[in-house]
Amino acid sequence: MAYRKIAILLLVFVAAQQIHGADSNANTPVDPPTSSTVQPPPETTTDKTSTTTTTTEPTTSTESTTTTTTTTTPPTTTTTTTTEAPTTTSTAAPPAPTPKPGPLPKPDMGKWHYRNSTTNQTCIIVQMAVQLNVTYALKDNTLKTILYNLPANDTTVASGFCDGEKNVLQLVWKKSSWVSLTFTSNSTVKEYKLNELRFDLNASDIFPDAQANQTLTLVHKKSEFTTPITMSYHCTRAQTLNLTSADATEVTVLGQALVSRLQLEAFHTRDSDSFSTAKDCDAIDTPDIVPIAVGCALAGLVVIVLIAYLVGRRRAQARGYLSM
Hints:
Blueprint: H1 2-27, H2 35-38, H3 51-56, H4 68-72, H5 85-89, E1 110-116, E2 121-137, E3 143-149, E4 156-162, E5 166-173, E6 177-186, E7 191-202, H6 203-206, E8 215-220, E9 224-228, E10 232-235, E11 239-245, E12 255-266, E13 278-280, H7 281-284, H8 289-323
């Protein structure tokens, strides 16, 4: 209760003070409500909420820092300096393959003769170009087949032999390789022929990469180039002669000799080194049936002409009788 009384007294006191202040304000002149009252409220209005400038302009334009687009695009793929492709071309292009060796040139033609020391007459004359096709052993024990031209300019007469039934001419080159031609004659038919062609080849000296101390002996044993005595044999075209082992029982072909531009004469009995009249190989090989056929054709033509003449004459005589 005491608290209530105190509170009531305080309220009465406050109310009395307010009434007294109102009376005193009524007695004092009141200044016109100028700037004191009209003072702009503490710029609450002037705040203009210009915050709108900051808020409304979310300066997302700053987000135009999407220069990421620009930065992404100019990766300036100048990294395509990988167009150092010319360097790739220059990357040591594989070397061109070595050209294959061309065909072996034709062999040179040589001419040789042998003079009989007893009679002082030339008994053998040989002119030819020779190409060999032979097989030899290499250093690695494999076999190799090559073409080899007889070096005509380096080949010389080594020896010879002449008598009434046998003539021999031996040629040499590189001091260790030989070719021998043996001719035999038949006095009954007065002909001679090449009876044997023999090659003794020092393979180690004349063939590339050949095994050491290797010698090839190859022989053509078949009789060739039959020719009348006092004549020479001539053949321009190439002729192939098979070569076998020197063993008389061996017939296996081990190589070939291609002989061209050939002219030879054995049992020559004159002092000169020139050939006698030549018998050509093509003329020799002409079959006998050819002249027979030509003769028959000419005979038939003569018969036809004769029959035509007789028929024409008979018709002319018949017309004469009719006119009479």
